[in-house]
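Entry 12.
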Amino acid sequence: MRTTKAERKRRREAALAEISNGHGFADTVAYVMSEWGCSRSTARRDVHWAHGELQLGLDAHDVQHLVTHLCTSLQRISLKAEGHQQYGASVGALRLLYEILLSRRLDNEAHKARRAGWGYGQRHGNTKF
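Predicted 3D structure (tokens):
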């Protein structure tokens, strides 16, 4: 049995609605399979499409708010975990916070510092050392 474009569109919009309501990937796949009676691979394809559409809908302002929310949540998690002597969880939250905020900037600065320049101490053509 072949699926019509209209049915595929309705199925994908239903997946997008589920994801927008905060459901996870696996839950949304199960929902699409049960609601529409399609295979797991078809449901996964539709949920991937929905994730892509959700990402396209984010603008720079939304991303800033999302990053701010994530960082605040990670700080709260780290402090709570440390208060309960769950140091592994605290370190994990701080490491993720570092990855989100600093690692890209520090990696970029390190890459710029490695580039050859015209400054003092730079080796030129005929040096032996």
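Annotation: Residues 20 and 27 are 12 Å apart (CA to CA). The two ends are 73 Å apart (CA to CA).
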